[in-house]
Fold these 3 entries.
Entry 1:
Amino acid sequence: MLNILSGTQVKVLDRAYISSENIESWQLMERAANQFADWLVQNFPDFGREVIIFCGPGNNGGDGLAIARLISETYKCVMVVFFEESGKCSADYQTNWRRLPNSVSRIFWRDFQSETVQNPIVIDGIFGVGINRPVEGVFLEGIRIINRMIGDKIAIDVPSGIPADDCLKGEAVKADYTVTFQFPKLSLLFPEHAAFVGKMLLKDIGIPEQFLGGMSEGRLYVQYKDIPSMHRRFNQFSHKGDFGRVLLIGGKTGKVGSMVLAAKATLRTGSGLVFVSVPSSEKQILQISVPEAMVADNSELRDLSKYDAIGIGPGWGLEIDPDYFAEILRSVKRPVVIDADGLNLLAKYPRLFDFVPSGSILTPHLKEFERIVSGVACHRDRLEKAMEFARKHQIYIVLKGAYTSISCPDGSQYFNSSGNKFMATAGSGDVLTGVLSSFLGQGYHPKQAALCGVFHHGMAGDLAGAKKNRGLIASDIIESIPETFVQMKLQ
Ligand SMILES: NC(=O)C1=CN([C@@H]2O[C@H](COP(=O)(O)OP(=O)(O)OC[C@H]3O[C@@H](n4cnc5c(N)ncnc54)[C@H](OP(=O)(O)O)[C@@H]3O)[C@@H](O)[C@H]2O)[C@@H](O)CC1
Ligand SMILES: Nc1ncnc2c1ncn2[C@@H]1O[C@H](COP(=O)(O)OP(=O)(O)O)[C@@H](O)[C@H]1O
Ligand SMILES: [K+]
């Protein structure tokens, strides 16, 4: 797992690593520039296009200059636009300025005429994580020039203007791609910055993970390689009971489809027995749509101790008696998954939080979260509030969206890397409820259930999205869940 450090820690990390490896700081910059240049050459193979690189006065600009040198023999025309005379810039900027070959043209920002270039590749190296105040003056002009230009725009590390860990105040470069180094900077994961970051690419510059671990601030980025070892293994003699009995509660008239999706997803994630509680008028729909599931009648709801996991809320409606909900929560003696109307009921009747079993997993999307903790200013604020909430109630908050975050009662916060925009379609969240309930029922610790569940759900969405693109529907995610286990070679 990759630690996400704050912007101010990047310099500390750099220094510590450089001294432990006995290398020069420009050599680390060279690795970053090489990674960027390799990606550029592979992805933009029209070498006749002009490449314009905007270089600010710090190491982000230094990266830009190193990149200019590295690509100067591949692209026919490479130009550096600079803002300060080299003597006033960072030491590694100066080193790379001296190493610029003659074939790279250099132009002072005020003399640059953007109208004279046609469809260039524009590289933004004005500021990276070292930005420490809102941008104004010449650099703001630079950002505006980039934003006015027409071409492919690629930010080095961070789109200039965006603070590494906070929300943008003012203007910033609107990039199509951001190639970031070592770990994703926190602010690249904020929904408010989507139009600035574009597609994020993560490039390793060779600082070992354990090095970052020593500086951990409790924020981690979860990738494919982290997941298989988190799974429980089952043996050849495993039986239905080992894979868990799961109960799902929800699905009022007109919304029973949410229970159909959740039940199918629970089964596809490997649960042994799935029971569903829906209003009696909806039972038949459920039985016909999911013959593998059993419909729980009210008498079965009296003894909740026989279920290994319970998922509550999709399509439930807001008319549910809060005392009935409280009774369910009180009588379950283990963590539950709460989604959709389960969350809306908690927001409507906050006293219900007192009954939520510790270790439970709550899965709000941004709106649902805001109903629970009103007054959210931006994503930074949301993440802090989610963290506080998780600690206070000793629960897991799965804040859904791109880079879904998982805030844990122990103060750690994880960011998921799988998933895609095509999953923003009705019922995707119901599928997640099923996946999470299934892992809880299979005996996973709630943290493992949350991390594995969110990752597999996103990965299933990626597999389905590769075939269905924007035609993806929630059922496609369900059908792709088994492939996620096959690809990870899970037993
Ligand atoms: N391990 C890694 O990740 C690696 C990171 N690397 C790269 O280094 C980048 C970080 O470089 P960095 O620290 O030099 O900061 P950077 O963003 O270039 O700007 C700082 C300069 O701008 C100034 N300044 C700040 N705000 C300002 C404002 N609003 N308006 C005007 N000026 C402002 C500030 O000076 P000040 O005025 O505050 O004294 C300073 O001169 C990082 O993003 C990545 O690209 C790789 O090369 C190697 C490995
Ligand atoms: N742009 C995106 N990138 C990655 N995942 C996404 C994106 N948009 C939505 N998702 C995922 O799809 C699911 C949508 O859930 P939710 O908003 O509850 O949908 P619904 O209420 O329609 O079931 C969440 O798991 C979320 O993380
Ligand atoms: K930048």
Note: The domain at 2-216 is CATH 3.40.50.10260 (Rossmann fold).
Entry 2:
Amino acid sequence: MADDQRPDLPPRIGIDRPGSFSRSVFHERHPVLIANLLADFPYPPRIRERLEALLDETLHGAVPAVVPPGPNLPFWEAEIAARAGTPWSALPYLWAESYFYRRLLEAVEYFDAESPWCGIDLFAPQKHAQLAGEEIQADLDAYAELAEKDPDERRQALLYASLWGNQADLGFRTDNDIAGQSDVVVDDSDAIWDLVDGPGERPVIVVADNAGRELTADLALVDAILETTAVELHLKPHPYFVSDATGQDLLATLDALAANANKPVQALGQRLRDAVRDETLRVRTHGFYALPSTYRHLPPALAADYAAAKLVIVKGDLNYRRLVGDREWDPTAPFGEVVGYFPGEVAALRTAKSDLAVGVPRARLTVLDTASPDWRISGTHAMIQVLH
Ligand SMILES: O=P(O)(O)OC[C@@]1(O)O[C@H](CO)[C@@H](O)[C@@H]1O
């Protein structure tokens, strides 16, 4: 909560403003999310009741004084001590959403070692459906065809695939058909490749976002970066926002690649499996990735790892919110100034799915706001922004 009271930063985005995107997440998406869970799993009455009570609490109630179980308990104890009694409607959006997912895990007994539901990924049915779907097959067919391309063109295509892979966020799909790809509003791709190709043995860190099509595309990008330098792939420590990628999802994706009919896809799967085994691709996680704090409040060890990397690529909209700060920024505020605090070189790859944006040139902003007023939340517009 440390930057809550910073007068030098714009106000935090809340969830109370009628008509706002963040309010619609709680009032429109979460009811669908809970209904999907109730349809996907034969939860017994106690879990069903908890899920329904949680939804009701988020719409009409306040934060209870009880600390939800799970890792990072001291962090949550302090947070709950500070927020208990606060109506949900008065919470900051980033905090409220993160806390909601922690409470969801509590409701389904994810961390309860005495429960048969312990450790069962509540989003697994949706993730598996995507991994077995036709769209991912089309993505992999396209991947196989890239083998013919010039290496620079190929890796740029993989960068864009990873970027647009973020559109396939399953949380986003609870009430949306997949949106068309429209436009890369800011494109600092060249800076990414300059950093990747830079001297030294330092790794590139990729902070993954969603499982399914996005993780598959991210892994193809990781494979391309591995031709130049070592990579660390950072995953979520446990299920978090809908479809967030965990270690289990990585293994499922590697299996899906190995089982694919396309030879180049099988070869990709094998290269990645070998790279994980010999740790040219290090797979890591950190409790920080499931907290509501922003990257301004990095744990020191993670900050040191970021500082030592050639480049940190953070994927997706939630990571963007955590990197920039989930605040009412002027969209024309320079990206480099807003994230200048970051301890190393950082690139953000996201399709825009929340009200937040920075680093948009003013003329471009005017055109976007006129021609596509919902460009910030529709997932049809993407950004590749680099601090270097
Ligand atoms: O990080 P991702 O997967 O790109 O996007 C996550 C996200 O779309 O989900 C939330 C809605 O539930 C938004 O607030 C958020 O930005």
Note: The first helix runs from residue 21 to 40.
Entry 3:
Amino acid sequence: MEGVIALMRSVPVSTKPGVVLPRISARRSSPYISTNFSKRDVCLIRAQQLDSREASATVPPPPPPVSDSQDNALKLKEWEVGRLKEEVAATQGITIRRRPPTGPPMHYVGPFEFRIQSEGNTPRNILEEIVWHKDVELAQWKEKKPLVSLKKALGAAPPTRDFIGALRAAQQRTGLPGLIAEVKKASPSRGVLREDFDPVEIAKAYEKGGAACLSVLTDEKFFQGSYENLAAIRNAGIKCPLLCKEFIVEAWQLFYARTKGADAVLLIAAVLTDLDIKYMIKICKILGLAALVEVHNEREMDRVLGIDGIKLLGINNRNLETFTVDISNTRNLLDARRTEIIREKGIIVVGESGLFTPADIAYVQEAGVEAVLVGESLVKQPDPALGIANLFGKDISV
Ligand SMILES: O=P(O)(O)OC[C@@H](O)[C@@H](O)c1c[nH]c2ccccc12
């Protein structure tokens, strides 16, 4: 554990090659500086940045106005580090930007400063909006529960269960993809899915109906989920391993998920750079968490297949930027070349979203998935256990 903390310690970085900035005061910390980079990571980023400088199509926006005040110097450094990270992300085809570290930039007019809405400080799509809001939430959570206190709480967390093992066992038992059934009250695309939403009752029904694992939404603002739901399900004696369905942008969230009873976490390739994914997988391993790495398109799929240590790969049929759902996405991404790599690496592919009928399940199974992640079509059923039997076309509970 000490190693993890050491890995997360702050390092001063500069955007100019070879120049090291003075250590930044701990009074205010940037997510980019204090939690995401080790010295080695920063070197890697520098190397990636130098390699990709010519390939990068991004034109950096003008720097914020400079003032002599210490506060402004800190803002400037945070802005520089944020830019550096965005450049790396752009070279990996990541279009989702992170929230500017000190908030949308201020504009100065005479002695006054104020914000003007512009392309640079307004989220461009729902996924970006969620991720930007997550940064604001995180700043508050981390103040309430700094990493040291989470580290102490880990001692009291229940042991993790084998998420991947449960999926494999279910698949072997039924000959059908292992089911991850999602406890989901609402979503930005579908609104409220179930008014009489009792997360523990729904989780019990899923287990009774033969789900191998459960997925629990924890995002409050956009999905009406919570970490209380996750902990309540874990503490209700449910044996299915639990996936914490969250928009993870910082390692702190991995620790928090673990203290709330998660056995697995979701890492979204549309949001995280390769380096972030590698770093988070390392921490998941130390914490005993399984990582489901989610992709939506060919670019993300090929990036993820190039990263070592990935055991669970989710193909989302829903585009999180536009919300369009198309289950043929699973089949299209699983071409012969990628299927071969997946087989060699022993990766389990999870088909995610938009699955409603036995024909849908057969279609993604035929495409090569060994597990499915299903929310809407189950959570809307008066009896979610019966919903599972209807979805698979047979009772998979025995
Ligand atoms: O309700 P559906 O269409 O069965 O989808 C479930 C799950 O795949 C979806 O909730 C999901 C997949 N990836 C995500 C990332 C964040 C939030 C939600 C999701």
Note: Confidence is low (pLDDT under 50) at residues 1-59.
